[in-house]
Amino acid sequence: MPPPALSRTCSRVPVLWVRPGHVGYLGPELDVGVHSTPVACLGLGLDGPFRLETAESGEHTACSVFAAARARHRIVTDGWILLLYAEPGGAASKALLDGMTRAEGPYGFDSRHEAALLDAARTGVDALDRLLSILTPPPRPPDPRVIRVVRAIRSDPSAFPRARDAADAVGMSVSHFLRAFAAVTGTTFRRYRQWARLRVVGAGLDSGHDLTRCAADAGFSSPSHLSETFRRTFGLSLTGLLASGVEIDVR
Hints:
Blueprint: E1 15-18, E2 22-28, E3 40-45, E4 50-54, E5 58-62, E6 64-67, E7 73-76, E8 80-86, H1 91-98, E9 100-104, E10 107-111, H2 114-123, H3 125-135, H4 144-155, H5 163-169, H6 174-185, H7 189-206, H8 211-218, H9 223-234, H10 238-243, E11 247-250
Parallel strand pairs: 1-11
Antiparallel strand pairs: 1-2, 2-8, 3-6, 3-8, 4-5, 4-7, 6-10, 9-10
Helix pairs in contact: 2-3, 5-6, 7-8
């Protein structure tokens, strides 16, 4: 028996949420074409199976799919979907990938956590965050020098324009710093700065600022530069997303 439709259990208000290790979207499919992103993505159909169109292996019908970073794909559905984006190599991405029960090329299918994800999605974003934290193994004790840099970038994405600036600030060689940074964050220094800038955009939108101000505050050269970066990262149109009436939650 298919799961009950999401509309029976929570309001149909799309939401985009941004966390240090992942970004999530809960809402209708926004007519995105075949695309690839530099981050991994788990898709879950909330109203039943969806169609996955891929560049490598044709079409599939599934309830849950994990697409590796840079795998060209498209999800097609008339219902709502849950999308969880996570940095490749990071703890959240590994937990989502390890939960898939079968694989074909760069795609994983049929998450063993489907039922738990559906229940959490029907409860809300906080429940999804709690579930992802349960599924994600605790990290090794991080290097406090890297944590200093991470906190500075989260507070101000322009704090360290270059990796060398950050390495010098904490007394590390650039090569050692970059290895330690990737071990702590699961991504590169450059990619983490981009995530931090997109967090600033999300916070600005959540505060009611327009795209021009959000782009400037986050260090993008223009709203179009911001929109292109967002589309390239998540495969979603930022203007289309905002037009859907999406709520934004940044922490």
